[in-house]
Structures are given as structure tokens and as C-alpha cells.
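Reopening: C-alpha cells for the adenine complex, inputs below.
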Amino acid sequence: MTEIVSDIRDASLADAGKRRIEWADNDMPVLRRIRERFEKEKPMAGKKMSACLHVTAETANLARALAAGGADLYLCASNPLSTQDDVAAALSVHYGIKVGAITGEDHDTYYKHIHAAIQHGPVVTMDDGADLVSTIHSEYPQMVGEIVASMEETTTGVIRLKAMERDGALKFPVIAVNDADTKHLFDNRYGTGQSTVDGIIRASDILFAGKKVVVAGYGWCGRGFANRAKGLGSQVIVTEVDPIRALEAALDGVEVMPMDEAAKVGDLFCTLTGDKHVIAKHHFPLMKDGALVCNSGHFNVEIDIESLEAMAKQKNAGVRNFVDEYVLDDGKRIFLLGEGRLINLTAAEGHPACVMDMSFATQALASEHALKNAGSFKAKVYEVPKDIDEWVARLKLETMGVAIDTLTEEQAKYLSSWTEGT
Ligand code: ADE
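Re-run output (same inputs, fresh job):
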């Protein structure tokens, strides 16, 4: 295998990045506890690992934990716009971790870094969106037998990987970290909820109060964002294709309607569905002058940007940082935020460390679990073991100073018996 080296924007940013990583570490006590144990036990000693994640201060603390466990880690970006260049520099200069990530990297550089992650020769991989796993399958089939397991961080990635499993295309085991309760119930809901608001405000400086905010998708991310927008005084409108989720939105007290209707009334649109062209070509001409459109789903396919580009008579790029203006034939203006890429990581810093603490604690423990049980998995998508999920939740509560009750013997017996009735 070729020797893999870091490819970052500017090594002189390393000290600033280190301060940022340490600041995030203050709010990641569960992951810190794991790092301290890994330091002593070295569960990843000598193991090559490659991670394709958003290169943020929080990810840096996951990288530190894996390196403390003895892993030889290569980290690349899971999105061309989400890298924090100072963090990438600090990882490479101060923590001795190989990184291939530069914010704003073009498509070829993005994939060059993914190829470097694969050529590193990992036995465990981590993905946020499944680009690493799918590239291994399509371009490095000879390597699939070497991979003990891959961890998947996000809903969109899990959807892709389950599709591969259904088609018989998946060739090594995957652990769906996203589906752990300590991940999606908190990261997807409260993390996305807050960081999406943060990204939209940083990009546009709008007031949420009084705005009609159209939320496409009422999964955990959509629920989180809708809830935060409502709390800020917006009139929230949800669009959905799933009747159960739509019903839940309606009973949560928000309006539910098809996008064809919502397009006419929304001031701000945010897609969080994991699917393609949720805001489609025919929706743009229906929108009001000055409508703001953004995405907080993993890939930039949720908004049909190509059609918007083609139908606009004029594009004014960068009317403000992270805002492009499109003028339609009738003079109507549509503002696209963050080029349709996930707004919380392009215009803001992603989810706060407090919530990434749980997601990345689960990533670290799931990787340890995979290595300990190497060889016992099939080429399937697995859930995170319940004991890992509960351990993370208990420790998080402890670090928050929150105590809970324990079942009495009588209560435990009652719950496991079926004979006691009225
Ligand atoms: N995904 C969402 N927020 C993130 C963050 N802060 N770091 C890494 N991945 C993320």
C-alpha cells in the first residue's frame, strides 16, 4: 500500500484548531471517559481505521479517542464544505492523525481523499453517508474481505446500506450507529434542530418569529427543526409522504400540506428528508418573492438546484456569505442558502459537542465491539448492542448530574409476570 500523508489547507492553523478541539472536549465527558479507558486498554492497538466524517472539533475528539486506543487512523471529509480547516490542521500537527480534508474541496479532491482513506488499508471504517463503503464496494472489491465492519453515522447512509443489503450487494458487516437511541433521539432531533436554526441565522440573519417555515420531512431531524422553529415563533408547515409522521405533525399542532401548496406560502423552506428533489422544478415558480430555500439533509439532492440554475434568468452568487440569489423570468427572487448542502455544517459548526458526545461515544464503543467480535458478523446491517446504548445514556445522565430510579424487586417481578391482573 502507498504511504498516506495528510492533505490539509494550512498547517499554521493548528494552534487555533487545538483550542477549538479542547473547548469541544469540555462538553464531551462520555467520550473523554472512553478515551481514558482506551488509553490504558488499547483495544485498537495497531489496527488501521479510516473514517469519512465531517471534520469538526467534535470529530477530532472521536479521532483522539480512537488514536488513544492504538488505532492508526486516516480521516477524510464526508462533505466538501463541512471541514473546519483549523481542526484538520491540529489533528495532523498536534495529534499525529492523518487527515485529507480541505473546506471547499472540489469533487475530484473530495474523492482523492476517499481513495486515500481506502488505500490506507483499514480493517474498520466509519462513514457519514456511506460514500466510503460504496467506493470500496465499487472500486476496491479485492478489499472487502479485509474489513471487519463499518460504522454508519447518519440516516441517509443507513438507508443506502440497507438498500445494498436488500440487493445482496453488501459485502461486509455494517453497524448502524445512527439507529442507536443515544444517537438519533438526541443528535438528529436536538442537534439538527438547533444547528439548522444556527446555520440559517448565520447565513441569512432572518428573524424566525412570524415567518412561515416549511419543513420537508418529519423524521427525527425534521421534528427537531420544526420544534425549534415553532419555539422561536414561526408558523411551521410540514410536508410529508408518510401518513403516520404526517399525523404526528398534525397532532403536534403544526400545519400539514403537500409541497405544491406549501410552496405558495412559505417564507423559508428547509428539506430534511434524505430523498431527492423534494423541492422540485415546478415548485420554484410557485414561491413568493424573496423565499429562502435550504437543506439540512445529508446530500445536496433534496432541492433540484440544476433546474433552478437552468430556469433563472440571472444568478447573483454570494449576495451574502452562503447566499446565492436566483432571479426568475418574472423578476421573482429565490435565495438558496449554502449551495443546498447541509446548512448546519456549511454555515454553522454542526451539532454542539454536548450532543455529539453521545453519537461519538457510541461510534467508539461500536468500533471496539466490532474488533472484539471480528469474524462473528455476516455482511448485514446490525444494530448497536443495547448495553452500549444504555451505558452511554447512563453515563451521560451521570455527567449531567441527573439521577434516576431503579426498579424494586417487586416491580421487576411484576413486569416479568403475566398472572397478576385486576
Ligand atoms: N454532524 C452534525 N454535526 C456534527 C458535528 N459537530 N461534528 C461531526 N459531525 C456532525
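The mean pLDDT is 97. The CA atoms of residues 411 and 417 lie 10 Å apart. Marking as resolved unless the reporter disagrees.
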